[in-house]
Amino acid sequence: MASATEEDGVVPQVFSVEKHETEIKLNEDEEFDDNPIEEVRLTVSITDDPTEPVLTFRTWVLGIASCCILAFLNRFFGFRQNQLNIGSVSAQIVVLPVGKLMAATLPKTPIRIPLTPWSFSLNPGPFTLKEHVLITIFASCGSGGVYAVHIITIVKAFYHKNLHPVAALLLAQTTQVHLDTYLHFCTKKLSCLDMAGLVYSENTLLIPPTCGGLRTWSKSLYSGTHLTSIYIELALHDKDKRPKGGLSRLQFFFLVFASSFAYYVFPGYIFPSLSALSFVCWIWKDSITANQLGAGLNGLGIGSFGLDWSTVAGFLGSPLATPLFAIINMLVGFALVLYVIVPISYWMNAYEAKRFPIFSSNTFDHLGQTYNISRILNPKTFDIDLASYNSYSKLYLSPFFALMYGISFATLTATISHVALFDGSDIWRMWKMTTGAVRDKFNDVHTRIMKKNYAAVPQWWFHIILILTVALSMFACEGFDAQLQLPWWGLLLACAIALFFTLPIGIIQATTNQQPGLNVITELIIGYMYPGRPLANVTFKTYGYISMSQALSFLGDFKLGHYMKIPPRSMFIVQLTGTIVSSTVYFATAWWLLVKVDHICDTTVLPASSPWTCPGDDVFYSASIIWGIVGPGKMFTNQGVYPEMNWFFLIGLLAPVPVWYFSRKFPEKKWIKLINFPIIFGGTGYMPPARAVHYLSWGAVGIFFNYYLFRRHKRWWARHTYILSGAMDAGVAFMGVFLYFAVQSSGKSGPDWWGAPSNDHCPLAKCPTAAGIEVKGCPLLH
Known about the structure:
Layout: H1 4-7, H2 38-41, H3 57-78, H4 88-105, E1 110-112, E2 119-121, H5 129-143, H6 149-158, H7 165-177, H8 180-186, H9 215-218, H10 224-237, H11 249-263, H12 265-270, H13 279-283, H14 288-294, H15 309-313, H16 324-347, E3 363-364, H17 386-392, E4 396-397, H18 399-433, H19 436-440, H20 445-453, H21 459-478, H22 488-512, H23 519-529, H24 534-563, H25 568-596, H26 615-630, H27 647-654, H28 656-665, H29 677-682, H30 692-712, H31 714-742
Antiparallel strand pairs: 1-2, 3-4
């Protein structure tokens, strides 16, 4: 009979470690000789060597290099038609042989720092697991993204306004550091929430592991990027004998990397149309309806797919690292929205839907034309001209884009409701358990090792960073002629929102590997309070949303460090340094491309084969119009077109209630608890910029690996899946950069033929179906 672990798509033991007891009795009056969570016992060692080198010369050189390279690659690909997020796994695997080479060749003689009593060695001995973990943390800082770069892009490429480079740099850096590092200090009283995998304490991390003991929460260590990181970290340092007739893990990585690198020359240069193949609209190419149904990029994507790894993993991340139940929940939400709600809304002509494309992230006027922002925007003050707005048109959206905002409302309230119903009593009980002697009783072996061997991060480190970054944030917002438009009170309010939502969203992320965003609720709040100012709106959103998101990322890294026995102070230093370095590289890369690439992001001028379409920035720009210039008061109230979208707040709040009720009424039916409405609603949260073809390709690959291969070829799955994911990412990334510098930067495009455009050859999918609406490239219907 399969264990619960196997049923959820996690192999409990994938390499040799010391054998532990598989069942540990939970008793509040005793200390545990091991972690009570089975997955941790079977994976993580209960020994530690505190003398093992950590912050070495190799750590700094390889870590900062990995951080810079991944930051450059991810920002570089962020502007392209098919985005690709290159995770830390690629760097994690590549640096291992480099680190061992440095250990074998660098001199061991200590080097004294002039005028100080200090010295260091270029080569303190063999390359260690702890060095490797910290290099991976550096790399994860580079792969995490810098949300504020979207602001820089829309100002320069869409609004065509000037932005002071110092203000832009401070914006990029402070939004990444800001109160993010402070949040895991503020959550120290929640340190019992180990199962959420998100909390830091002033004395140690994640105390105690027995709080709650829920199996789904206990898998927080084994989800997403941390599952991949921990597995590969231990697997690579385990003695990996090459199987007879097979490949070692490193050999497998480089074989897949080479194959991915070679193959990407086709979708990346010779045959870009491979990224989205939409057969339905090719067969009925003159039918608008067929184009709408079959287009993978601008329609419902029925029968569409992509033969390009960046199509699979570019927007939703690698499906190989997402639990099967989360994939199913996301696909259910995707199908309900795209194949039920959107078609009904469109063909019933709700909100004059037939005047617009069925799937678009653009904004429109009442005549079905792209909304002319210059007609309502005061060029001197860069805010709305109400007289011009009233004489022009209300703002309209495509039916899909309008529904996406309603579903975003539902995602937020469903997150709060789901956590309160399923986890509220445990959270309250554990909050009371985190005081004094009661807390100290619950120490597993990992916690005791960390307490004994390593000093905690001093509280004043957090305080200094908070004061400094808030001051710099205010300077960026209020200084430079207030180009960012956000006043000081808006900045503080954004911080408060991030603090409030960190816990409930962290629990959802820990159990599902998906993070409901705060982008819409922050836009809504500042849009009502401070309307008509687009940059104030997006800046508020960035500080409110990314502070929470970055905090959860930091806390997840601390959990990784806890089980890998990394000194907390070393982990903190690496996180802080990596964040500052990565945000600087992201800013520099974006600024360079915005200046270097002619007409970047302007699809009306770019050639059809150009990859520089900026799909994420295009959505960000539309959001700045909807929430910033026009504002929610003129969109989602009786003054606007979409007041009914507010009902989604109530729908989201009530949706988890039946699942909670039936899970209690029928506790033997374990599958009921796997119905997760925050994920069902939030599953389409990546759309746009993600399109139907991305979801369908992502879901097909995820189900094939995490369902079929996991059950039929479990040994192969356990040994190769995550390495395959990292190698595919790396191959696409390096070929993409090579193609740009080798040919595309000099203006040379691929062969001029049918497959050259980076689209799916379904042009009529963008057409309206209402009579009398005239759109360039579309037939006029009567």
